[in-house]
Design a protein that fits this description.
- This protein has 13 helices and no strands.
- With 348 residues, the protein is mostly helical.
- It folds into 2 domains: 24-184, UbiA prenyltransferase (Tetracycline Repressor, domain 2, Orthogonal Bundle), CATH 1.10.357; 186-316, Four Helix Bundle (Hemerythrin (Met), subunit A).
Amino acid sequence: MDFSGAMPPQPLLMTETTTIPTPATLQELPATYGALTKVRLSMLVVVTTGVGFIMASVGPLDWWVLFWTVVGTMACACSANGLNQVVEVRRDKLMDRTKNRPMPSGAISRQHGWIVAVVLGYLGLCALVFFVNLAAAGLSLLTMLIYVMLYTPMKLRTTLNTLVGAVVGAIPPLIGWVAAGSELSIGAWILAALLFVWQLPHFLSLAWLYRDEYGRAGFKMLPGVTGGEHITCEVVLLTTMLLIPLSVTATMIGMAGTAYAICTIIMGIGWSMLAYTFFRRRDRSSARRVFLASLLYLPLLLGVMIADRNELTANQLGTLVLQPLDDAPPAQAPTDPDSLPMAPDNGS
């Protein structure tokens, strides 16, 4: 007991989202930086960039350029993810799925996270400029700017932020394409379109699962607005179905073979069936299946595309070439006046 007459200290009132700061130790910093930069998500950027590089390459791969392309885009992706967390640290504290991130949990300060993210972005862009080319560096910088300066603030204002985020995810294969020294032909745009459409059911199914948490944090996501739950299910179904004909276009222009087309049709039908179940039931289990299927669909699609790719130059992709038949006799002008076609008699 305290006989000094002073009032005992009052207990700290904590809400369910309040966390006690626990600064990361030196040994914990690698894992902390990994969480700050979302390494696993950044790896997806690296994979799609690498696919773009491989699909645009003709002949033996330039492994040295591919290495620096991967290193540079990885650093830029980690930087963008870190900057996004710096901006959203206060709102991350309001969501159960993000409150344990490095800055909301107090493992590192906001200034610490900012410095790490900026340094990574700078090093990544330098690697692309000096060891790859300016086009790849420019597209990487554009991706970072759109993600941090457009997509991130749009999440608080409009549900259209998902479309902008899908644009960000569609640019990495273009980075790999130009890194290989090719121009942005129709093959590059098909890859970008596949990534753009894939992200819609991928993210919207996740947003449906966490729609309440997004709402508490003030994020404007489609599943959280009035009537948005049903619209989300419709969009997920339509976009998974759209991926079937879109993926086959890679075979139509000669970028991939028939085996790829067959595989992607089968995978697309399977994913669409899960999306249809989500559309009919609209429950957490079906939404989770759609999301997990998206994580399996993309690497399988890209893997089959690489395995069954056709080595064509960027100028040959999607180009129709007309050639005369060797056995066809040359056309000759008629010499007999009676064989010429008569003009119609109009009565004049």
